[in-house]
Design brief:
Radius of gyration: 15 Å
Structural class: alpha/beta
Largest sheet: 4 strands, mixed
CATH class of the largest domain: Alpha Beta
Distance between the termini: 30 Å
Order of helices and strands: EHEEEEHEEE
Number of domains: 2
Low-confidence stretches: none
Strand order of the largest sheet: 1-4-3-2
Strand content: 25-35%
CATH architecture of the largest domain: 2-Layer Sandwich
CATH topology of the largest domain: Signal recognition particle alu RNA binding heterodimer, srp9/1
Helix content: 10-25%
Mean pLDDT: 87
Number of strands: 8
């Protein structure tokens, strides 16, 4: 095995307010917002697959920093239920369900996210 492994360990997401972002992402993922805020600007939210973490970072946020296209997607088994949940949560929905399996949303900091049926 090489020194650099063929695995993604974390995805960094720039956020304005680390506490509010932790609440929003934990609500989105239906997990308790118990994750520690580290050195005042980082919060690691572990995902269920292969040790991947989402790292919210309020130290790297700049108004022009957020991605205009999704850098990753959250999986769902039912795209229509996921879409309705985002509507019920008043999440900013950017696209309708496309090709029957995905749609885009924005988090409160303007980062583009995708929800995709697997």
């Amino acid at each position: 095995m090489g020194i650099i492994t063929n695995k993604v360990g974390a995805i960094f997401i720039p956020v304005r307010d680390i506490v509010k972002a932790r609440e929003w992402y934990c609500s989105l993922l239906d997990v308790e917002p118990i994750f520690e805020i580290i050195v005042g600007h980082l919060c690691c939210i572990p995902m269920e697959n292969n040790g991947l973490n989402i790292v919210l970072d309020s130290n790297i946020y700049k108004e022009d920093c957020y991605a205009r296209t999704p850098m990753f997607h959250f999986n769902t088994e039912d795209i229509h239920k996921a879409y309705q949940l985002m509507k019920d949560m008043n999440v900013e929905i950017v696209t309708e369900i496309e090709h029957g399996h995905s749609f885009n949303i924005k988090d409160p900091d303007g980062n583009m996210l995708m929800i995709c049926e697997i």
